[in-house]
C-alpha cells in the first residue's frame, strides 16, 4: 500500500546560516471512487483509511444512507493512484445510476461537479436534539486532539477530524488527510462502520468550518461541531437551519458558540446552590 508520508531533503536558512536537513511530508494521491464499475469522483487524498473514506463519502454525498447499503468495498492500487471500488445493494445502485455524475477536484474543493446553485447550497439534513456537553468536556477533547493526530505530529501538514465519545471521555476515532473534507468523510465512515451513535458525542475539526463541513456533519447525524478555526457566514446559517450547535475558534482556555447554544451547559454558583446555566456567548474557563 502507498506510504502516507515521505522523508525529503530541504535546506533551513536563517539570516546568518544555512544547513541541510530533512523532514517528513504527507503523500497526496488521486483516489477514484468507483460505484458498480463507474467512476463517480476523483479526489486528491492522503492514502490512509481509504475504506473509511469510501464509506463516509458515500454517506455524506447521499449515495447511501447507511453502511449496510454497501455490499462490498475494495481498495485497488494503480501506478498513478488508487481506486475505492464500491458495490452497492440493488436499490442504492439504481438510485446512483439516476444521479450519476463525475467530479474531479483538488483537496480544497468540496463542490466540484455540482451543476446548479441550488445543488451547491442544498438544504442540510436536520439533526436531533439529544446531545449536550460542557465546556470542560470540550476542552478535554481539544487537549487530546493534537497528540491523536499521529500523521500531523510527524508532518505538520494535514487536517484532522475526530469523534469525541462523551461516555468514554476519549476519542472513539480520529482521521487525517491533506484535505479537510476528506478527513471528515473518513471520520464519518469510521463512525458508521463501528456502529457508533453520533449523538453520543461531538465532532472536532482542526480546520475552518465551511458550509460543506456542516453539511457532511449533518449527514452523519452529529449535533455538535467543535472547530479550532472560524466558520464562514454561510456555514453558520446552514448550521442553524440544520439544528447543529457550532463551536469555533476553540482554544484551551475559551471558545465561542455561534449557533444553538442550548446544548452547552455550565455549572454556575448561585445563592441557591449550583444550577445549570445555558451559555449563548463566549465561554472562558
UniProtKB/TrEMBL annotation:
InterPro entries: Cytidine_deaminase-like, FdhD. GO terms for cellular component: cytoplasm. Keywords: Cytoplasm, Molybdenum cofactor biosynthesis. One of its GO terms (biological process) is Mo-molybdopterin cofactor biosynthetic process. SUPFAM superfamilies: Cytidine deaminase-like. Belongs to the FdhD family. Required for formate dehydrogenase (FDH) activity. Acts as a sulfur carrier protein that transfers sulfur from IscS to the molybdenum cofactor prior to its insertion into FDH. This is Sulfur carrier protein FdhD. The gene is fdhD.
Amino acid at each position: 500500500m502507498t506510504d502516507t508520508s515521505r522523508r525529503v531533503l530541504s535546506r533551513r536558512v536563517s539570516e546568518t546560516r544555512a544547513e541541510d536537513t530533512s523532514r517528513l511530508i504527507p503523500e497526496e494521491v488521486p483516489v477514484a471512487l468507483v460505484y458498480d464499475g463507474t467512476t463517480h469522483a476523483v479526489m486528491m487524498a492522503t492514502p490512509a483509511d481509504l475504506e473509511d473514506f469510501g464509506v463516509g463519502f458515500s454517506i455524506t454525498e447521499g449515495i447511501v444512507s447507511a453502511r449496510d447499503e454497501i455490499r462490498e468495498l475494495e481498495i485497488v492500487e494503480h501506478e498513478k493512484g488508487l481506486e475505492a471500488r464500491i458495490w452497492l445493494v440493488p436499490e442504492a445502485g439504481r438510485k446512483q445510476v439516476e444521479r450519476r455524475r463525475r467530479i474531479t477536484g483538488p483537496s480544497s474543493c468540496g463542490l466540484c461537479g455540482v451543476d446548479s446553485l441550488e445543488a451547491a447550497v442544498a438544504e442540510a439534513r436536520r439533526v436531533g436534539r439529544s446531545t449536550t456537553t460542557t465546556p470542560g468536556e470540550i476542552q478535554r477533547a481539544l487537549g487530546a486532539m493534537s497528540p491523536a493526530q499521529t500523521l500531523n505530529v510527524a508532518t505538520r501538514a494535514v487536517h484532522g477530524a475526530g469523534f469525541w465519545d462523551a461516555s468514554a471521555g476519549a476519542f472513539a476515532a480520529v482521521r487525517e488527510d491533506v484535505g479537510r473534507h476528506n478527513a471528515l468523510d473518513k471520520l464519518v465512515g469510521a463512525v458508521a462502520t463501528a456502529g457508533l451513535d453520533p449523538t453520543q458525542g461531538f465532532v472536532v475539526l482542526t480546520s475552518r468550518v465551511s458550509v460543506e463541513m456542516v453539511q457532511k456533519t449533518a449527514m452523519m447525524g452529529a449535533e455538535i461541531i467543535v472547530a479550532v478555526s472560524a466558520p464562514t457566514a454561510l456555514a453558520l446559517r446552514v448550521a442553524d437551519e440544520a439544528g447543529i450547535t457550532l463551536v469555533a475558534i476553540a482554544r484551551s482556555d475559551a471558545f465561542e458558540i455561534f449557533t444553538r447554544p442550548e446544548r452547552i451547559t455550565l455549572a454556575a454558583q448561585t445563592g441557591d446552590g449550583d444550577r445549570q446555566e445555558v451559555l449563548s456567548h463566549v465561554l472562558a474557563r
